[in-house]
Amino acid sequence: MYYLDHAATTPLHPEVISVMIKYLQTDYGNPSSKYYPQAMSASSALKESRKCVADLLNCDPEFILFTSGSTESNNFVLKGVVEKYRNKGNHIITSKIEHKSIIETCRHLERLGTKVSYLSVNSEGHIDLNELISLINESTLMVSLMWGNNEIGVVNDVEQISRICHERGVLFHTDATQVVGKIEIDLKKTSLDFLSISAHKIGGPKGVGAVFVGPDDLGLRRRIPSLMDGGDQEYKMRSGTQGMHNIVGFAKACEMAKANLKENNMRLLQLEKKFKEILVSKCPGVKFNGDQINKIPGLLSISIPGINNELLCKQISNQIAISTGSACSIGEKSHVLEALDLADSTSTIRVSLPADLDNVEEVASILLPYISLS
Ligand code: PMP
């Protein structure tokens, strides 16, 4: 069985599982407690874990807050910025192809009076930077644009976008959930204000992630209101006892993602190239959606004339696990493919490869009878 839905989630890495067990079985203390060994171990693991996440992003650990994942990180940033800076403005800019945790949060904020502009994308999945510039006005608080898209894999030029925002005094947030561990993220080079990531896309556990909250203009900690009222955890910005088993698992996944980044990136590019070559040679009319150069390695949105994507996914599900698109929007029409103006989104599948896939030829040979007969 080939699991090729790594953009939806990834299997837990065995090394991740083994570090998690200790914090479930013996070192179960509350990291905010003191005095006794279980708590001291949890507290030092929290510190160490924050450093591991920060190392992967090349930022200072004190700017990392643990959350339950990217959905929460995205909600926290958007809702928090609107609340904190409501005297400065009430306008946010995002795009039509963001993840639902951005789009639906924006809809929520709109119902409460925030103005939101949704940038269109071209057929490659890119926004128009001039449109972005023209939409920024005195009441614009923040621009939120994803680093890499979860359905088509297109990668934004976040460095340039961030520069455009900062030159105009506007904050910049990026949802980096899909690019982390796939392409280099260096927050010392790319100066941005907020970034969201999730553990389960890089071999870590589900239900844990982080948000980078960069310093303010004076270099001081930026204080964003907590989504939940309660204790003082996570620099008073995310109340609730930290799930240490998840956090140490996330940290181990980050450590491994950093160590294997270059090799995984190269391997994914090779696998993707081979897979595309086979499909193109054997399946006339096959089309790969979105920019095929500035993209997340290993993530492919493939349109195959004549197929029904749901039927295909079911037919091959005993041999290959793939999806029609985002797991967070299953059964719905894809807003991403719609924004790309793709004529027939029901003939589109998403394949997201693992770097350790050993036989891409066999995967193609299982798939081909289903897609070339139709
Ligand atoms: N943003 C993007 C781009 C994603 O792909 C996902 C996961 N599908 C999320 C946010 C939500 O992440 P989580 O599952 O950790 O809440």
UniProtKB/TrEMBL annotation:
Any one GO molecular function term: cysteine desulfurase activity
Catalytic activity reported: (sulfur carrier)-H + L-cysteine = (sulfur carrier)-SH + L-alanine
Residues of the Aminotransferase class V domain: 3-354
Co-factor requirement: pyridoxal 5'-phosphate
PROSITE patterns: AA_TRANSFER_CLASS_5 (PS00595)
Keyword DNA repair: no
Keyword field contains Cell membrane: no
InterPro entries named in the record: Aminotrans_V_dom, Aminotrans_V_PyrdxlP_BS, Cysteine_dSase, PyrdxlP-dep_Trfase, PyrdxlP-dep_Trfase_major, PyrdxlP-dep_Trfase_small
Keyword vocabulary terms for this entry: Iron, Iron-sulfur, Metal-binding, Pyridoxal phosphate, Transferase
Documented EC number(s): 2.8.1.7
Pfam families reported in the protein's UniProt record: Aminotran_5
Gene3D superfamilies xref list: Aspartate Aminotransferase, domain 1, Type I PLP-dependent aspartate aminotransferase-like (Major domain)
Family classification: Belongs to the class-V pyridoxal-phosphate-dependent aminotransferase family. NifS/IscS subfamily.
Name by which UniProt lists this protein: cysteine desulfurase
Organism: Proteiniclasticum sediminis
Classification lineage: Bacteria, Bacillati, Bacillota, Clostridia, Eubacteriales
